Amino acid sequence: MGAINTKILLESKDLERCPFPIPVGWFFVDFSENLQTSEIRNIEILGQEWVLFRNEGGKVGMTDPYCPHLGAHMGHGGKVVGDNLRCPFHHWEYNTEGWCKNIPYGKITPPIVKKQAILRALPVVERYGMIWAWYHPECEAPQWELPAIPELEEPGHVKPRRGSWPVNTAIQEIAENGVDFAHLKFLHGSPAIPPAEVSFDGHISSVNMANGYIVGKGYGPGLNVFHFTQEGVTATMVSYSVPITAEKSQMNMSFTHKDFPEGSRELAIAKKLVDHMIGQAEGEESAGFESVDFIVWNHKKYRPNPLLCDGDGPIVQYRKWFKQFYVADPETLAKI
Ligand code: FES
Ligand SMILES: [Fe+2]
User: 150-328 has which fold?
Assistant: First the structure.
């Protein structure tokens, strides 16, 4: 008997569940309707606490909570005053871009105040009725724009059905499901491993599963749009997971389709497609993600060097694509 390679047997002891930093990208923060004018809210996403506010002009700001003056937490006692967020401690005011706009008592302003924003503020846009923030660990400006999603922005579509689920893993692990074609048969119980094509171009990933049945695109790590088509009827699933901490994510989805006439064949197919996306379709042979994926995600560890076989999907290519969104030291990147 030859010598046993114990490396493979012992490797899992040193594996981490989620060795990933928070990735760069646009991330869903909340629905626009949930943040009123002059409202201030403390939120925890993207690995830290933030103060989210809507100024009197309607613009949304998302800033670091701690005032650059003496460190008060502006989400506790702060106030929206005109365009600005006012710190409760000495009433310094900051706009939605993090510039200090007023120090009510100082005669000599620290020079840096005039040169740059002194409070970290994430770039924020509102699209599809949602608030989105651009996250980059080193505060770099957005590297791409959010895409048009006509189903969420243009009339003629039904009000989206929404879902939101907490998951105890990083968003890379959630999204890897999209290229893990073999698990569709064995975990979800679908009748066969569907044929699929995947391609990557810059921050965009594209997938075509089962010859046009599911066609989707990923726009960075925080937004995926999938179209499910059956008998000429298309339904849309938009998924927008957001990292909460390194090991905790919130998975969010919206489902919609054209506003087909009541009682029509098209409406029945579209509704069934949406049920199928959630895994609740009548007579469905396979189990939806709610019932099976979470069990795996919530407990698995990440293997940076997986043992793959020929039936697996393009997991390595997908991971390589996802890695572009991580900014970290070489030691951290080596574990991903
Ligand atoms: S700590 Fe915020 S104004 Fe002084
Ligand atoms: Fe899955």
Answer: Naphthalene 1,2-dioxygenase Alpha Subunit; Chain A, domain 1 (3.90.380)
